[in-house]
Amino acid sequence: MSLKKQYLKSRPVCKVTFRLPKKAARGSRQVFLVGDFNAWSHTANPMQRLKSGEFKLIMELAPKREYQYRYLLDNGQWINDWDADKYIYSTFGKCDNSVVAV
Question: Percent of the chain beyond pLDDT 90?
Fold first, then answer.
């Protein structure tokens, strides 16, 4: 998994590329990016499945913030990003959430 950040000079946003490798997707046909940037919606941000079997999504996020997120596989399993900037414990799911700082 990897995070790529690109700060735009033309607008006050950071384009963040989220990637979930094929191995981590565990045969999923659909994966969603779920986090506080979309009110933890399970359907708002479907990721694009690439020919390689990995999943990718680019989001524009406001800078100078931290966002908690996780990946939701089509079998209902939640996956953290192994390359997250850090992790924060969530009492909601009694697990760690991935965090991206932009």
Answer: 89
